[in-house]
Structure formats: structure tokens, C-alpha cells
Amino acid sequence: MTIRCTRNSNSLSANNIRFSAVAEVKYVFVTGGVTSSLGKGIISASLAKLLQARGYSVTIQKLDPYINIDPGTLNPYEHGECYVTVDGAETDLDLGHYERFLNVHTTQVNNVTTGRIYQSVINKERRGDYLGKTVQVIPHITDEIKRRIKIVGSGGNYEIVITEIGGTVGDIESLPYIEAVRQMRWEMGPRNCVVIHLTLVPFLQASGELKTKPTQHSVKMLLEDGIQPDVLVLRTEHPLNEDLRKKVALFCNVEPGAVVESIDVSTIYEVPLMMQKEMLDLTVLRKLGLSPGEEPSLAEWKEFLHKLKNPAHRVRIALVGKYVELADAYKSISESFIHAGAANEAAAEVTMIHSEEITDANYRTMLDGYDGIVVAPGFGSRGIEGKILTVNYARTNDIPFLGICLGMQCAVIEFARNVLGLEGAHSTEINPKAKHPVIDLMEEQKSITEKGGTMRLGSYKCELLHGSEAWKCYRKEEISERHRHRYEFNNKYLADFRNAGMIACGTNPESGLVEIIEIPSHRWFVGVQFHPEYSSTVIKPHPLFVGFVRACIRK
């Protein structure tokens, strides 16, 4: 047994130092039933936020049942945004929620896929680690899953590890994960492993009542896999009465106090307060045998929500991209505008516009009336000319502009064509034989043939030009931001751009790679090669988004 001293995050007074005897790291597993997209990630992040506010050191892990090694090669239409961690892992978008709620970094150990599990086991088999044995799902795959779960808590940095299991109970793909949870619960005991099951309680309009049968069947399926849930979180559109809670508790072998209502709310950032009201954190701590500590005030969180719901200003922002049919494709950008809007006491109303629909004939009409314009990141040629036209409209009409990754590259191409007069200027990603390759493949990328996990990924340093717009936002000489790209600004053209009025105000100190461009004569025109949206959180909105929204407010 080890004695850990933890400090309540809401106060640094000596009175709030809490001593707890922790035999080992405690594990909380979050499963889902009935249907997907119920919000397991938000419930996990909300619980973690509450436990963190009570002084516990918490992290969250996502187990994804697909066989891809990571989501890096998945179409955003398939899986939404690919989120990049500081150490360069391409991960599930739920890790973005974890970071935005907890204000702490995740790493590659926080996201595990079935593909990664099987790859590890097969590599061991090829090395001869299993000589003489038949390699099977049980115990080899499940042992690897358990190992990956325990890695997160093995460094001594966390008291509680929350593990979200992707998919829905009953899916073939999720069965090894469910079995691994059953084994861990059996091996470690119920005081060290708590299972939260999230289900749907639908409302039937015809009968005018909420139905619990889907929840009952979902729990029955979980029981068939050998797991009795400790807590049920019921997603609902209507309030649950006490009788319904008691019914669910009786039929699902759960304490009435462990049946938690998760009703629809106007913003995901209300969920931690809702879960606090439902005492989800207290229920979990009690079942884990841990002290509840003092009731957290969540003062900063409540202040953020107050500003979010009571804006003094409204700004209309056009987000131009090619995956706009699925809002989750740009999830981190959308959330960053919520954070930055609240920081400016403004409601940032983001309208997504498909770049393929923007043409020479209509771009002025389609982009008219917006206070700011963002050109989104992405890959490939589809919709590229629409993005370039968008940049032109923002530049020539003095509209605040933010270009992210490919958006920055489009700003460079547009400037080269229409200001420098370089006919045929383009990126070699789109046109390998471009007469003026102002955007070109990075030198270290030219020998790479495999697509998965081979881009320039993770956090890199960037030196800022003092007095530039970017510097005014960060108020730092050096920053670190996350990247996900293969192509870069071609430094052969750097002097031409500078002389014509577009400057490189942010560069990598080691490689000289241009990280940030801006036009000083413009009201606010900034393009960044990195992805600032990945590091924006509720408590620390990203300075570039804050600066951009501020510029949109100023007329």
C-alpha cells in the first residue's frame, strides 16, 4: 500500500491537502448499449473533470474496436476528425474532449485500437514469444488489452484511470474488450474496477412514455458477457421520475442511487454540472472505496458557461472546407470557437460552407455578410479552387482570415497567383508539375512510401517575430504547436513574398520551416501550418482563436 498526497485543484490552501491510502490504481470502465453516439466520451470526460476537481489525478483512455492501426488513414466522413496528441499519435476525436475538459495532454497510450492490439500480438508470435503455444483471443489478445489498459496507470502519475470502450455492447468487434474488463474486475476486485454502462431510454410519442426495455436488454447482454454494471447512466430527452429509476434498478441489479439521468442539454459543457447534480462522482468514489473530499466549486467552469450563455456580441464566421456534411470532421475547430467566443464574451456562430460549391460565379455572394473567414485543413485536390477563391475574397475585402494547415497553403497559393503574378503557382500535392511550386513536399517526406503514421506529426517549436499579429496573440517569443502535414512553404520564394507584403512571422528554429504567415497591411490575416485547434481548452482558449474572434468583433 502506498500513501499518496493529493491537492484539491480548486484551492492551494493547506487545509485542502487530502491524504488517501491507495492500494493500487483504480479503474473505471465506460461501456455503451442500445445505440452508438450516446456520448460515452462526454460522460467519461465529465466524470474525470469532477474527480479532478475533487483533487484526484485522473486520465482517460479510449479503446477503439476497428482494425485500423489508428484513424490517420480514415476518411473524416467515416470517423470524424483525426485528433493529434503532443507526441504525434493520430487518435480518436474523443481524446480532444478529454483534453478540452481536463486541460491536460494525452499521449499515444490513451488511444488503443484492435489493429494495434493484434499487431502487437502477431509481432510477438513472429519473434517466438509464444513458441509451442496456439495464439488465441483468450488469453493472448485479452492479456494484451489488459496490458495496454494498465500501461496508462503504471507511471505512478494517476490514481484513477477511466477507460472508454468504443462501440456498443453486443458488437462482435467489442467482445475481446468486454472480456478483458471481466477478467480485470475478477482479478482486481470490484473495489478497484467499476463499470459504468450508458444506455438509451427512448420516448415513444404514440404512447407518451419513456421505455426502459432497451436498457434492460442491454444490461442483460452485458451480464451474459460476465459483467454486472455498477452504475447506469440513462440518456434521455425527458426527465426520469423516481418510479422509473427504481424499476431500472430492480431489473438491472443496480442500486437506485446508481441510476443516473443524462438528459439532453444545450451544450456538452453543461454535462459535468449535470453529472455533479446526479452525484455520479460521489457514487463512483464510494464504490471504489475512496474519500469524496470537499465538494468542488467548479468556479472557472461555471464562469465559462455564464459567458457562453450570455454573450455581449455576436459574430458570423464562415468555415470553408470539404467535409462539412459531417460536423465532427472539424470538431476541434468548432469547439475552439466556443472557447474563444466565451473568452471574448461573444457568440461565435460558425457556418460550414462546402468548398466544392464555391465558384468564380458565386463566391462573392456565398461569402458576403460574414465577420470572419476560416479555411479549414485537409488533403487532396477536391474543392481546392473554392478554398483559393475564399482566400482571395477575404484578402481583397479586408475580412479577418485564419488559414489552418492546407488553409494556410491556399493563402500562399492565392497570394502567389494574384499578387506576385506567378501564373500556375500551386502545391505539388495537387499539381506535381507546377511551374511555381510555392508549396512543396517536405524533404524528409520524399523517401516515404507508406501512408499511415508517416506525416510530420506532433508538437514542434516555432519562433515568433516580435510585434507580429501572431506574437500579439501569444505574447511569447517561442511556442510549441501540433502538426499533421507532408507539404510545406517553399522557402525559395520567401524573399518574393516578403517584398510583396506577406511575411513569415513564425518559423521552426531548427529546420527554418515557415509555420506562420501573415499580411501586416490587412486587418487580420494569419495562416498557420500547424493545428491550433488541438490545444484549445475550456480553461485555456487558444490565443489565435481568441485573437481572430476579437478581430471579427472590431468593425
Give a quick summary of the entry.
The protein is of the alpha/beta class and about 550 residues long. Helix content is about 35%, strand content about 25%.
SSE blueprint:
Blueprint: E1 2-7, E2 17-22, E3 26-32, H1 40-53, E4 58-64, H2 76-79, E5 83-84, E6 90-91, H3 94-102, E7 111-113, H4 114-127, H5 137-153, E8 160-165, H6 175-188, E9 193-200, E10 203-204, E11 209-210, H7 213-224, E12 231-236, H8 242-252, E13 259-263, H9 271-277, H10 280-288, H11 299-309, E14 313-321, H12 331-343, E15 346-354, H13 363-367, E16 372-375, H14 384-396, E17 401-404, H15 406-418, E18 425-427, E19 436-441, E20 456-464, H16 469-474, E21 478-485, E22 487-489, H17 494-500, E23 503-507, E24 514-518, E25 525-528, H18 543-553
Parallel strand pairs: 3-8, 3-9, 4-7, 4-8, 9-12, 12-13, 14-15, 14-16, 16-17, 17-25, 18-19
Antiparallel strand pairs: 1-2, 5-6, 10-11, 19-22, 20-21, 20-23, 23-24, 24-25
Helix pairs in contact: 1-3, 1-9, 4-5, 5-6, 11-12, 12-18, 14-15
